Predict the 3D structure of the following.
Amino acid sequence: MEKIVVLKGGTSPEREISLVSGSEVATALKTMGYIVSEIDPANYPVLSNFITAIQNEHPLLVFNGLHGGSGENGELQATLSMAGIKYTGSNFKASCISMDKYISKLIAIAEGIPVPRYILLREDLLVDYQDPEDYSGFSNQLGLPIIVKPNDAGSSVGISRVDIWKI
C-alpha cells in the first residue's frame, strides 16, 4: 500500500481553512486505499526537522494542502524539490509568480488577457499618500467601489472594499 503525506495547517492567516481542507483531502485519500500521514508544518519550527519528518514517512508523494504563505509562495515547493520529495501542485517558480498578484497581472497583460484597472501601492510609499487629493485621484482613476487587497495573500485574506473616501 502506498503512502501519501498531506500537509495541512501551517502558520499563514489561512491556517484554519488549511486544517479543514487538509483533513478532507486525507479522508478522501484514505477512502481511495492510500495510507495517509497528516503533517502540520507549524509543529516543526526548524525546517530541517520538518523535512526529516516527511522523509521518515517514505511517501509516494506529498499532497500540499497548505493555504497562503510559504505553502503557496514557492518556498515549500523549492524546499521539497531540493530534498528530492515529490509533491502535488505547481513547481516553485510557478508558485512564486502566481502568488504575486502584480507579477501575475503583468503576465496576463503581456498575453493579451484583459485585467481590471489597478494601482500598485507599496508599503514604503504609503507615507506619500496622506493628502486627500491623492486618495481622490485613486477613485478618479479607478472609479468606486475600489477593491483593495494584499499583493501576496491567498484566498480573500486582507481584501476590503472602499465605497467612499473618508479622510
Observations:
- Residues 114-162 form one domain.
